[in-house]
Amino acid sequence: xxxxxxxxxxxxxxxxxxxxxxxxxxxxxxxxxxxxxxxxxxxxxxxxxxxxxxxxxxxxxxxxxxxxxxxxxx
Length: 74
Prior knowledge:
Structural class: alpha+beta
Low-confidence stretches: none
Order of helices and strands: EEHH
Mean pLDDT: 77
Strand content: 5-15%
Shape: globular
Number of domains: 1
């Protein structure tokens, strides 16, 4: 599962359907390549998909964990 949410904890994108152990970059590449897939706007242009993933992952990791923690408590 790939999920993206805003800093105020609203989901803006969810991609389901990946089972088992999958490399994160592969799921991200699939999300970007879909017809109505993930669109990302940013000023910094990473050179590789790995740099892009690392940048986004680091900036949203805590928000996602907090949001899923709230969902578990409900």
